[in-house]
Amino acid sequence: MKPPTSLKTSVLFPLNKDKILLLGLRVLAGLSVISLLFILFYLSKEAIPVFKNIESIKFFTDKSWHPLSGEYLLLPMIVGSLLIMAGAMLFSIPLGIFAAILSQFYAPAWFANVMQRLVEILSGIPSVIYGFMGIIVIVPLLARFEAPGTSVLAGVLVLSFIVLPNIVLISRNALSQVDAIHIDNAMSLGLSRYAIIRHVILPQAKSGLFTGIVLQSGRAIGETLAVLMVCGNVVQIPGSIFDPVRTLTSNIALEMAYAMDDHRSALFLSGLLLMGVVLIIILVAEKISPRENTV
Amino acid sequence: MNILPTNNNAADTLLKIASWISGLFILLFFGYLLFDITINGISRIDLGFFHNTPVNAGRQGGIFPMLISTLWILALCLCIALPIGLATAIYLAEYTNEKQTLTRFIRRSLNIIAGVPSIVMGLFGYAFFVIALQLGFSILSGALTLAFMVLPLLIRSIEDSLRAIPQSYRLNAHALGLSQWRIIFQILLPIASQGILLAVILSIGRAMAETAALLYTSGYVMRTPDSMMDSGRSLSVHIFDLSMNVPGGEQSAYASALVLIVLLLMINIFTAFISQIIVNKSIR
Predict the structure, then answer these.
(1) CATH code of the domain in which A123 resides
(2) pLDDT (0 to 100) of residue A291
(3) Which of A84, A121, A283, B18 is most buried as measured by Cβ atoms within 10 A of its Cβ?
(4) Do A132 and B243 touch (CB under 8 A)?
(5) Which of residues 52-91 of A touch B (CB under 8 A)?
(6) Are residues A129 and B260 in contact, defined by beta-carbon separation less than 8 angstroms?
(7) Using the beta-carbon criterion (under 8 Å), do B119 and A249 form an inter-chain contact?
(8) Could you tell me which chain A residue has the CA closest to the CA of B117?
């Protein structure tokens, strides 16, 4: 709401406390726009030198990723990132939505409450802890079937567990925001419980569900250390789900410590690439969002 | 919950079974995870674990330096993020509508910043704070980077608590001829104070869980930091290092993970407590 300004204050005291306050607030609020520009600027500034020395096609056509000897094949890492994200979403979306349906419609209240609390706690647990549990539990388990255990599948599983709590929270939230009037109407029409959930509630909650899930996929592709801990980090396009793989994010985390010159620029370039993917995901989420804003 | 009719048919039963399987799977899996960390972590924890320095790359000894670094990073991060977050939230909630260009820019920027992967934020922090501003690998660099990361959450939560204040308060205050300055600082902020506290605590939780952004900003030196220009290893980075680079560090990793989870749990309970107070107040 725009505060009413009296003629007296605006004419006689053009620079009163309120105006200074507004100016200060505006400047500080503008910082968030400026900081985004800074982020983009500094990432680009460090990434651009790579284009001077290397043709960009080389990121897709080189023989391998050996930056020290001038081989800059980024493709396996891009494939790895997408593969693990897709796998994790495929695994966690149905599980998360079913669990949300359970606590919203089927489970007794106490059970739903316990689950809600647990999932809230879990969504705050750092991903390194999931990664650590992945090393301790999942990798040895997979190694029994096929060595070495650190693999695409391990990454998919760990990443699923990282995003799962959020997907449950988002889905439950979306389901609970369906207008009660639609449910009442459906009930008075004598529809069965399944029919109400499937044909009244889910279609209503759809855009909320999609927005949340799309944003989570952005989080999934940006996840770094947990994936790095369990994926084996061999640069290759995996032939099976038991092969090790390296993601774009792990590549940055692993090599930034010693990368120089073009190698370093290439890492910043992959950072920009990730940023681009996330940007697209956010734009898509904004398009399908039921509300004005999404964070 | 349980508002729907319970007339059964095949499809309903099927959905019921599928959802129970998913729910129980989640409950069991995550229950196991918390149980496993607690059981394995607790045996390694004693009082010395909290006030000793790590020995032998962290296999023995405690986590004192990591606790101090984590505290430093969190405190600095909040000192930086809170003024900016408060100002932005006040601006968004009290001065603008969604049609203004600046507002739209701010919102879009915040949405994007919220989505930046933490390792990419780490890259930025490295290029900007560590190299360009010559802060080096330091707690200050890490805190600045983290401040960027928590800002969207902080602003969103503070703005929500400001928007929850009934419009009549503002109208009455204006009718009394109070200046905007006094309305904000003596009426709105005090009323929203619990909501702001909630926002701060949520942000602390988010910042404490962050790891990848800190690797190349605050670094991973295990020494107790003397000042904010020293490099310091946060608890989460410590867990990462123990489980990746230190063979035989599992026990310490378990224990550190337990400490971190308990800290986050305390934050969780505290937030639940505060939001309950806010809910009670708004009902009354």
Answers:
(1) 1.10.3720.10
(2) 59
(3) A84
(4) yes
(5) none
(6) yes
(7) yes
(8) A222
Indicate yes or no: CB of B111 within 8 angstroms of CB of A275: no
Quickly tell me which residue has 């204040």 as its tokens. Answer: B165
Tens-place pLDDT, residues A238-272? 888 888 889 989 989 888 888 788 888 888 988 99
Structure tokens at A278: 């996330």
Q: Domain segments of chain B: what residues?
A: 11-42, 65-283
Name the domain count of chain A: 1
Q: CATH 1.10.3720.10: does it fit domain B65-283?
A: yes
- Write the CB contacts of B171 (distance below 8 Å, at least 6 apart in sequence): none
Question: Is a pLDDT exceeding 50 seen at residue A54?
Answer: yes
Choose, out of A21, A122, A123, A128, the residue to mutate when testing the contact with B (most B CBs < 10 Å). Answer: A128
Distance CA B9, CA A194 (A): 8
Distance CA(B132)–CA(A74), nearest Å, equals 27
From the number of C-beta atoms within 10 Å of its C-beta (0-12, 13-18, 19+), residue A267 rates as buried
- What residues 221-240 of chain B have any CB closer than 8 A to a CB of chain A? 236-237, 239-240
Q: Does A160 map to a domain?
A: yes
How confident is the model over B76-95, as a mean pLDDT? 92
Report how far residue B242's alpha carbon sits from residue B57's, in angstroms, rounded to the nearest whole number: 8
Confirm whether pTM is higher than 0.80.
yes
Dist. CA A103–CA B195, nearest whole Å: 27
Domain of A187, in residue numbers? 77-248
Question: What is the overall mean pLDDT for chain B?
Answer: 87
Number of H helices, E strands in chain A: 15, 2
Alpha carbon A226 to its chain centroid, in Å, reads 13
How many Cβ atoms are within 10 Å of B40's Cβ, its own excluded? 17
Q: Which of A1, A42, A224 sits opposite B124 (nearest CB)?
A: A42
Over residues A168-191, the pLDDT tens digits come to 999 998 888 888 888 888 888 888
Domain assignment present for A211 = yes
pLDDT mean across residues, chain A: 85
B179 Cβ under 8 Å from any chain A Cβ: yes
Residues of B in contact with A283 (CB under 8 A): none
Contact between A25 and B91 using a beta-carbon 8 Å cutoff:
yes
> A157 and chain B: CB distance < 8 Å anywhere?
no
